[in-house]
């Protein structure tokens, strides 16, 4: 049985019928009541074969009787080739298709490796949220699905059952047969099976064509991603990325205007004008008016459907808003973004594609030359990238935590004096005042708590939620404060250097017998450096339903730039976690002066996290240590706490009754950072003057970090201070 044909009543007209016989059969249909006043739909279907092109065609006409007496009709044409690989191109097509499948498999394997690498580095969420990765996987899925459909087409074509003829009617054209449409059951079943296979072939061709079209579009998008490495070739992608925010707001506004005019057009013209008879057709009609409107095809119907003034108001306001205003704003957004991207590439002095191809060829030639001549002075880009990556891995993990998120987490679990709510009256409310208000609410009395600690925990959570929703940091940005300090520090250093150069010049005039030399004066300045080593963790509680805790730490010092992250230790059921080497971090805390005691109340903050693949990382707790406590160093276990406010005791999560702890080694020393200063002279000249003590500014602070080079007045001295 052909299940798809069970609900249909079929009458067959064979190719053996003549025109007269076919008209008689139609007459029999009318007389027999097959076509009468209750007929709703008639479908005329024909299957043809073009023997020259070897293509099947399924032509279908559908006639539908409407309640108003009209008959609507529609048609569809589907085609399917019989021979997918013509004899003259069989080998070429097989080779090309094999190459396409091979390249697709290589690309898919490479992307799978990237996915597994992101899982190993705990960056699965970032990987899944990347639009380019979504485009890549969409392209792979579409291509593999297309190849699957093509394989199904090959198999179905090879086993397609086809008879030379299908004599379905028992006695076609007989005038004595009472049942003119009597069919042979076996031949009818073969024909229906053949018809279903041909239709499936035609549907497969349609699906394959659609998938191929999507594959080409996605390939173009992936090509734009690949070309992003070259600034001048990436103008399109960078323009879209820079204008994405403005474009999203534009499309929101355009959609509101478009939908409003769609509804108005359907109400105004839909009862007489077919192009506005539904919401979807009205929306399409407005876009056609905007892009390529032909008044001669719709003007008369629209004028008859409404009054002339309503038609004019609707049409011209739509053209004014959509075409002259919104469309030009859209173009202006793109043009501004394009100009900004192009200006940026010009300011950076980006080379063109041809020049970069020349540099690549030159680089490869030098690699070969170095392989031939081992002493050839050349370092390849790959070697340089490997060395830099190894150096960076000494201080940073491959999964970098953003400073804003870490500080936000720290503020969230330690609300003391960090957040305040600004009221419309100008009054400010800190967390302590807000907690007093929460205590006075009847909300607390309406809930029954088993223990006082449960009520405290409830108030803590309510306070945290309110301060995060409506509050803002109560202090200025520590980075801004530090920048101002560095600026004043640099100004003092420049002024003091000028004074000393002037003094050297006076000494030279008074001792004119001493010749100038090529020596430069180097000034050593001490700075306070905080060094921290993260060693071990133990008794960490489980934060989710995983097998263990994938722990890592993020460290920063209040008021000083620099956020560091340890390596991620994968979860286990062990009771302690031990980091290997390279978990050493350092901060430059400024000049080692008496005023440094002002920073004694600042804190070293260590945030302890449980890494998650999909959701955001869970905060286990934090450790805060005053810098004043580190004057003599420390090497000890510190308890990991989750303090919520100064009105309630710290909440401590325990593992099997033991407190979670972290072992740290920290020391505050005086010295100079390795990359503190770069200095030099323009030409070989100098003065034998020597300064043994570091320059001191007017407020008692040391003037600079690292070293300063002082040159005689007729020289151009340069000193580059690397400030945080």
Concise overview:
By secondary structure, the chain is an alpha+beta fold. It contains 16 helices and 19 strands. It has helices at residues 19-31, 90-120, 124-129, 131-158, 185-226, 235-242, 244-269, 279-292, 295-305, 308-347, 353-372, 381-393, 403-413, 431-440, 452-470, 478-510; strands at 41-50, 55-65, 71-81, 419-422, 428-430, 472-473, 521-525, 527-538, 551-557, 560-565, 576-578, 584-591, 603-610, 618-626, 634-639, 661-671, 677-681, 706-710, 717-721.
State the helical fraction.
Answer: 40-55%
Q: Provide a count of the helices.
A: 16
Number of strands: 19
Shape annotation: elongated
Distance between the termini: 81 Å
Secondary-structure content class: alpha+beta
Major sheet attributes: 5 strands, antiparallel
Radius of gyration computed on alpha carbons: 40 Å
Q: Overall pLDDT, averaged?
A: 74
Strand fraction equals: 15-25%
Low-confidence stretches: 394-399, 513-522, 645-650, 673-724
